[in-house]
């Protein structure tokens, strides 16, 4: 559970380890219930690749999505009426993964309601690494994700907003899109093969 | 398609753990037994207080029953082999409705000592098993037999801290060895 990137507000007293477990379980619950049980989650036995979950649609092996969960237990006020979810984390340069099947889930866990507040954010790794103020320090990349929680906001993270009750369906769509991407890549590779003969039934 | 009973069990257990951890400000620690031979889902203790914990079994339903015009009830049925029935002040049941719409536990939940649960949940002995049926009103104004055991989800942490403190007084380790007070010059100081 070596999950960095968690921040706590003054009110929260639970440990970072407890916060990590609680938010990962909350995320797993929303995926299971929101997909009517179609999404299966597996927690890797080791966290060497910075994945908290491998996620796949029930019965469909070989098309899994890897997910890293990041949370905060407080919000930052950056202007009079704007509350922001701010998550800082570092990744060793050698372990940075930019892959279409690796995504981040980021959310504010409200200690008063004891669940996530909307919106939550589901972001492809490559986009997050490019836009979350990346800076290199020694052999580590440092990131600061800072997204508005306000309903009318149109910041760069707006396309990745997801209501927590819609997470199950959203992740199912992401997995479906990735399957299509894999299928089209495989076909284009076929065309490059020498001496390949195409046959079609009438 | 709906979630499986395995998913339902796991989600409800995780919800229970979440409300205890966060609701107690991190004071409550939970541990899952490596085997489920004793029908315990969690061992619960206050951080740093070893040997003073209690066991908890989690039961849930994902639908409510309308038993009269405006009364929704949670119904729970299960069997326990006679030889596995545990009546102990250190063994409790947690019963909750997992609401598929809000994707979380609904208020109220129920935290019931095993002795009370086994007495009140219409026990029937059949074959080598005890069958228990709990039907508790979810309505705010209800005064049914399960009313004393109601707890709001956000009060669960505080309630379990209270239960742990009460149980620590009953714990064998909390009792003084017989004859200790008879020794001259012995002073007993308790926090």
Please provide a written account of the structure.
The complex is a heterodimer of chains A (202) and B (191). Chain A has 202 residues and is an alpha+beta fold. Chain A has one domain (16-191): Trna Endonuclease, Chain: A, domain 1 (3-Layer(aba) Sandwich), CATH 3.40.1350. Chain A is built from 3 helices and 11 strands. Chain A has helices at 16-34, 125-131, 167-191, and strands at 39-42, 53-57, 65-72, 76-79, 82-92, 102-110, 115-116, 120-124, 135-137, 140-148, 161-162. In chain A, strands 1, 2, 3, 6, 7, 8 and 11 form a 7-stranded mixed beta sheet that branches. In chain A, strands 4-5-10-9 form a 4-stranded antiparallel beta sheet, with helices on one face. In chain A, helix 1 (16-34) crosses helix 3 (167-191). The longest helix of chain A is centred in the C-terminal third of the chain and has 25 residues, at 167-191. The radius of gyration of chain A is 19 Å and the shape is globular. In chain A, 38% of the residues are buried. Chain B has 191 residues and is an alpha+beta fold. Chain B has a single domain (5-182), classed as Trna Endonuclease, Chain: A, domain 1. Helix content of chain B is 21%, strand content 32%.
């Amino acid at each position: 559970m070596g999950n960095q990137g968690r921040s706590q507000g003054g009110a929260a007293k639970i440990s970072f380890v407890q916060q990590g477990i609680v938010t990962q379980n909350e995320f797993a619950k929303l995926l299971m219930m929101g997909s009517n049980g179609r999404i299966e989650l597996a927690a890797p036995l080791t966290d060497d690749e910075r994945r908290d979950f491998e996620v796949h649609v029930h019965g469909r092996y070989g098309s899994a999505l890897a997910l890293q969960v990041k949370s905060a237990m407080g919000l930052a006020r950056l202007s009079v009426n704007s509350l922001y979810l701010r998550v800082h984390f570092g990744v060793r340069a050698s372990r940075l993964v930019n892959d279409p099947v690796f995504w981040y889930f980021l959310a504010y866990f409200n200690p008063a309601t004891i669940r996530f507040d909307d919106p939550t954010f589901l972001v492809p790794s490559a986009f997050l690494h490019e836009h979350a103020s990346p800076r290199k320090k020694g052999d580590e990349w440092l990131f600061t994700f800072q997204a508005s929680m306000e309903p009318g906001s149109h910041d760069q993270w707006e396309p990745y907003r997801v209501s927590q009750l819609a997470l199950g369906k959203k992740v199912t769509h992401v997995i479906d899109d990735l399957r299509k991407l894999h299928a089209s890549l495989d076909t284009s590779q076929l065309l490059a093969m020498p001496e390949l003969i195409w046959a079609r039934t009438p | 398609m709906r979630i499986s009973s395995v998913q339902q069990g796991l989600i409800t257990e995780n919800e229970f753990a979440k409300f205890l951890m966060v609701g107690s400000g991190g004071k409550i620690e939970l541990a899952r037994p490596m085997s489920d031979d004793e029908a315990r889902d969690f061992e619960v203790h206050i951080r740093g207080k070893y040997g003073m914990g209690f066991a908890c079994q989690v039961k849930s339903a994902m639908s409510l029953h309308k038993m009269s015009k405006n009364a929704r009830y949670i119904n729970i049925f299960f069997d326990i082999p006679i030889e596995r029935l545990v009546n102990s002040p250190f063994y409790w049941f947690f019963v909750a409705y997992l609401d598929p719409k809000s994707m979380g536990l609904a208020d109220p939940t129920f935290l019931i000592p095993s002795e009370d649960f086994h007495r009140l949940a219409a026990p029937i002995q059949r074959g080598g098993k005890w069958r228990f049926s709990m039907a508790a009103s979810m309505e705010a104004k209800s005064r049914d037999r399960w009313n004393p055991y109601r707890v709001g989800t956000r009060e669960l942490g505080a309630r379990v801290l209270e239960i742990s403190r009460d149980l620590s007084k009953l714990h064998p380790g909390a009792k003084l060895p017989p004859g200790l007070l008879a020794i001259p010059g012995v002073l007993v100081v308790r926090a």
